[in-house]
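[agent] plan:
  1. take the single chain provided in the ticket
  2. run structure prediction with default settings
  3. attach structure tokens to the ticket
  4. add a short note for the reviewer (M.T.)
[agent] executing step 1
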Amino acid sequence: MNYRVVHRTVYDYAQPVAVSHHAARVKPRSTATQERKDFDLRIVPEPGVRKMRTDYFGNRVCFFSIQGLHTRLEIVATSHVVVNEVTPVTPGLSMPWEAAAELFRDPVAVELIEPYQFVADSPMVRALPDLADYARESFPAGTPLLAGVLALNRRIHEDFRFDPVATTIATPLEEVLKKRRGVCQDFAHLGAAMLRSLGLPARYVSGYLRTRPPAGKPRLVGADASHAWFAVYCPNHGWVDFDPTNDVLVGPEHITVAYGRDFSDVSPVSGIITGGGRHTVKVGVDVEPL
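[agent] step 2 finished; step 3 output follows
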């Protein structure tokens, strides 16, 4: 599938900002199943300093600074991405989950050091007894790892309600588990935290999802949104991505931008400012099949 993605973020400040420093992680990754054909990042006002770097996890990050007075910041990322359709994994053929978890107990083999770092707690995802208890229902003894994750993915989708006003970026997972509602970010964090609570490596993935309008309705430009899901590392298969918000294995309608331990590693735009007072932020995403 060919896609043109436009991701527009606008900050409006009540008072002038004197100096601002930002990091933008909005450049889609090139992976074994995804090819980034083209990318453009437009920033207004024009930054005095602008550099593209690769972070620890291999995500491309644009660091920029604006040193003149401004009351608005506009960041527009335009990408052309090709996502290839591949044969899905067969969950029942993966190794038993206990055997996989055993591989990530010290000492860890050299070839597993990269996924091993995603077993540990991170700023927004911590292993908790309540999360482990919830996850264990999907992992009876001897269950193939990916079959268990698929069952867990489905249970999160069925047990938790999508509610865009129920949580914020700061809502702890304990509260999400209690309320049984949230958004894709919360569900991705839940899935990763539950797997880590069982000793399994799981990472957080940010990106986009192609959306389809209701039957007979036109596609609305700018009506899409950023999306998030989680991935688990399965020996002999590598990283396998699951989308609990939609109860699916990630496929050709998902576009990967970045991955890390949790949202704090992959926030699309972050930064610090001097001045500005109160501000509003508006985000619009358009995922257009070509």
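[agent] step 4 note for reviewer: The chain has two domains: 2-84+267-289, 91-266.
[agent] ticket updated
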